[in-house]
Amino acid sequence: MNGSESTSVVRGDSPFARRLIRHLRRSDAGQTLVEFSLVLPIMLLMLFALVDFGRGFYSWLVLTNATREGARVGATQATAAAIQQKVLDTSAGLDMAHLDTPVVTGAQGARGTMVTVDVTYHFQYVTPISGILNLVGGNTLAAPLITAHSSMRLE
Q1: pLDDT value at position 7?
Q2: Alpha-carbon distance 86 to 147, whole Å?
Q3: For residue 142, with 0-12 CB atoms within 10 Å meaning exposed, 13-18 middle and 19 or more buried, which class applies?
Q4: Could you tell me the sign of the dihedral formed by the alpha carbons of 22, 28, 32, 34, in that order?
Q5: What is the pLDDT of residues 77-126, one digit of tens each?
Q6: Between the CA of residue 9 and those of 12, 15, 21, 143, what are the distances in Å?
Q7: SS3 for 146?
């Protein structure tokens, strides 16, 4: 294959290329492809946002319930270690590698005082939503910190 043959294919001088160009001009296939390529990133962004929002909301619910359970155990004069263990046990649906150690204040204090439990979870996206946002809008999306706080009166 010499250089003149390769340039003729690129210019559209071959019979196959002429037929292909003629077919694309007469059909709507090229227009549909262009429209699809324009809409696809936005549709994927919406789908990925829906998936990650659902996961984030689930993580928030699990974390809030875990701190409430920990505060309830703490209200019965339990130790800080027992409260932390209860929080970790009830947050089993989360990735423990991204869960900070629960912070307990006021454990085994005087009756009528408050015991508080605070937990932070480093949420991680499972979809490439940050890359698609960068493609569509030029911005990226940082993974959020989900925090939960519960307090109860000591019995």
Answers
A1: 47
A2: 17
A3: exposed
A4: positive
A5: 999 999 999 999 999 889 999 999 999 999 998 999 999 999 999 999 99
A6: 5, 9, 12, 48
A7: strand
